[in-house]
Amino acid sequence: MIRLLPGAGKHVTLIPNEWSVGKLVTMTTTHAAEAPPPHAPDGLQEHFDATIARDQRIEPRDWMPDGYRKTLIRQIAQHAHSEIIGMQPEGEWITRAPSLRRKAILFAKVQDEAGHGLYLYSAAETLGADRDDLTRRLIEGRQKYSSIFNYPTLSFADVGVIGWFVDGAAICNQVPLCRSSYGPYARAMVRICKEESFHQRQGYELLMTMMRGTAAQREMVQDAVNRWWWPSLMMFGPPDDASPNSARSMAWKIKRHSNDELRRRFVDMTVPQAEKLGVTLPDPELRWNEETGHHDFGTPDWDELMRVIKGDGPCNDRRMERRRTAHEEGAWVREAATAHAAKQAARARKGAAA
Amino acid sequence: MSAEQSGKQGWPLYEVFVRGKRGLNHVHVGSLHAADDAMALTHARDLYTRRNEGVSIWVVRSEHIAASTRDEKDPFFAPSADKVYRHPTFYDIPDDVPHI
User: Fold this and answer.
1) What's the confidence (pLDDT) of residue B69?
2) CB neighbourhood size of A244 (10 A)
3) Which among A2, A334, A340 has CB closest to B69?
4) Residue B26 pLDDT
5) Which superkingdom does the taxonomy of this entry point to (chain B) (predicted)?
6) Of A192-201, A219-228, A267-276, B70-79, the least confident
7) What pLDDT, on a 0 to 100 scale, did the predictor assign at position A245?
8) Chain center to CA of A32
């Protein structure tokens, strides 16, 4: 083990190690009882600020302000929970997919969502969060997930519209996060964005197929578009003047663009796709603005967003119940695997001693 | 007692390294929890190589990794900065000497 070098050890704070996450770095254990100092000593704050200013990444074992760490844990956890809960709306259609091809695609997509959740939990753990604790917080309703997953998937067209709108909105949100100042989060986002592109394209292709079908199928697509459009715009969060923490997150380069900016980008991106598809977006105020070079569009129902976030959306209870049940029903598998590993380890020890 | 109830007895954390293709080094890609090494490998395959991202995977218990001190501007690496003669650009060679 490497000895702590002179000068570096005076004010060691409890910084988690990318390699031994959530525990103390071995070399700092002698300082384990000390709480992090309220003000960063020895120019650590300056070093952190300079790293951000140079557009370099903060890595797990760097010193970082408490607020930065807490904001990131909250944001990454919420993002991870969204991916995990996000398996449900579409997952409900796996057994009812109209063909083996669509079933296989949907399986792969839902599996990706699980993967995204796990990449993100892994990133949160580099900040000292504990995965079991995060799961518990989700199940107990103490941490949130994206409001969008509290809406029902009423027809198979919803699977396509989710891919097109929800994953499209996720791409708008997430591509800039690939340059987030926190290294492990940015790296997770790179992987996720590559896969989201498959999600969006499969959704759009599904809808194109339905639009080439019967009048009833086209109606299903338009109905799904009507139901998902406004909730998708809400995915970007409250308007900028009602988003108090945004400025700080932007200063820390955790966030790169404002909610309204990303929302507008999503609208600009989606309008021509809707035209090609032959559907109408349900907003009478939606029109191209020559002057701004962007689309003007209506205001989402922010009261609805607040209601859904507070737990009163159409499916909040169902989503939470499903997650809780899955966790509880999987307990015996986790316990059996732990017992098996312990038995094998004991056998190996006995074998080595003999 | 269940791993859930005991909390701290949950599955240990593993770091995952993937060789993208033949000729490349294994690169750290992330971490996961697993009950044992075999499970860590199969989970790593499912989680990190769903699209041909690798031809070989290493997993290692995170607690078994020894790491250098915490900061990239660490005194640990300072000695490498003051030995400029280790770099080829340190040596002046006339322009008309070929192939050097």
Assistant:
1) 65
2) 8
3) A2
4) 97
5) Bacteria
6) B70-79
7) 80
8) 32
Window 278-337 of A, Cβ < 8 Å to B: 331, 334-335, 337
Which residues make Cβ contacts (< 8 Å) with residue A220, sequence separation at least 6? Answer: A155, A156, A157, A210
What count of residues does chain A have?
Answer: 354
Contact of A120 with A186, CB cutoff 8 Å: no
- Assess contact for A187 and A233: CB atoms under 8 A: no
Residue with tokens 């021509």: A272
Interhelix angle A259-277/A183-211, rounded to 10 degrees, is 20
Nearest alpha carbon to residue A127 among A174, A84, A66: A66
Does the predicted interface ipTM exceed a cut of 0.85? no
Q: The dihedral of CA A337, A338, A340, A341: what is its sign?
A: positive
pLDDT at A207 over 50: yes
User: Cα B83 vs. chain centroid, distance in angstroms?
Assistant: 26
Q: What is the pLDDT of residues A239-254, one digit of tens each?
A: 998 887 888 899 999 9
A351 has a chain B CB within 8 A of its CB: no
